[in-house]
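Protein modeling request. Please complete all fields; requests missing the sequence field cannot be processed.
Requester role: graduate student
Desired output: 3D structure, token encoding
Chains: 1
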Amino acid sequence: MQGYAYTIFAGDQVEKFDLEVIGVMPNFLGPKQSIILVQLKGQKVEHTGVVAGMSGSPVYIEGKLAGALSLKLGIFTKEPIAGVTPIADVLAGGGISGNSVGGSSPQGPISNGLANEFSQRAGLQGGAELHSIETPLVFSGFQTSAIQKFSSQLDGLGFVAAQGGTTPARPDDAKLAPGDMAGMVLVQGDVSINSACTVTAVRGDRVFLCGHPFLNLGDVQLPMARSRVLTTLSSDMASTKIVNVGGPIGTITGDHLTAVTGKLGAAPAMIPLELTTKSALGEKVIHAQIVDHPKLTPLLVALTAFNGLTQNVVYGEGTTLKLNAEIRMKGHAPVEIENRFAPGDSLNPDGMPVALSIMNVVMRLFTNQFEPVKIENISVHVESVPGRQSYSIESAWLEKGEAAPGETLRLRVLVRPYRGAARIEETTIKVPDQVMRGTNLRVMVSDADWMNRASRGFAGGLGQGNPAGIDPLIALINRERRNDRLYVGLFVPSPTMLWDDKELPNVPLSQINAIDGRPGPGTVQILRESLASEANVAMSGPVTGIVSLNLPVR
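Delivered output (554 residues):
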């Protein structure tokens, strides 16, 4: 059978190209799941092959809409051979029934990740499997070096990273026809990230794209925008469309195995992100909006923050970075993040720990087990100071070798700056009034990580507990110790019980025995010491090291 399909190769001109049906492959991807295998014909498609961004191109056989171009066969192939998702399966993804060619079922086209995994497990030679046509992930305002740092998170998702641009919204953006291009908006503003697929069909205000999943996220509420093609880059390995992203036209409502579906109209709200970078060279402010989705937002915040921080004229490597960030949420107290990051000796960019620190907090908020979070705003301020300002703890000593209950002692700590002369920092500790004479106390001088481990047990290094709600989680994050502090802890030899996010010092053994075995596994820890008091000294950079001192009470 002979047929044809529509797509855009350049400009806004939808072009027709021919195809020939090779055959139907029943049960190819699952029970009762058929795929139509076709060979593309014509000078352009024989030159470009199956192009990333072509997925969703409507395929007509005998004048009837038969399905969406969605799969490609092999790599470095000499003929452009593709798979077509039957139209009934495409429409089923949006809850609309239709007539299919070659059978239908809820199963869908296999993803790149599954295809590759299947090939490896079966011991097959790669390059001959049928997999989803890649979806261009269009980056505007992002440098390649920034994208590459997050390539491991983006790999395997079926994306082809492509650099593109943005174009002003037009009145006709929402006037979509089969063969036009549209996609999801992930980031917009001074920088943008968008996906781009071809429109298969428009039914009223419903739009059907791609013919395969974006990330198989199910029912979603993500912004949808028009995409406008500049040109098609031909490559023997992976041809792709180069596009500019136009104005918002509606909402992506579904991301299923057989299609991405959308609804024309208003776009859903996004999360505003403001990033301010300050150094001796001046100040730079970048504004962006991030899509609101628990699986996408943390990574996109990190990628956008890293790119905005490192790819501007006021940033330079070899500097100490001071991070202050605030995450505001609807109905809850704001989350405060404050830390300093000194340059390391590795080739990893100095800005990467800043981005990962923010990503970690956003992920903890989205993955909480209590309620959905609604982030209203993320504000990030990074100040850059020349040089590596970090400190190591070398020694510490008390003004007296023993103390009385209730006595306050002076403590001196010898710290050495990176490639600098050692200096002395001073603070005080107070012995609790109720400590019995003859008790041996432990004074620990350390960085934040060691103090966390000493006072929180196994969860100390992670800075995480199992809070009983979103508000306790926020409080736990806000009170986490900072890495630019010199901490002094006074420990008494009585047990501490850690139950979820609660620290219960000086617990009597009778109470420990009473709850022994009752809580779930891993929810309770017993530490042999209790933190009686704590002090800290602010430093201008990260602190590392630990010193322990004995303090007898006479």
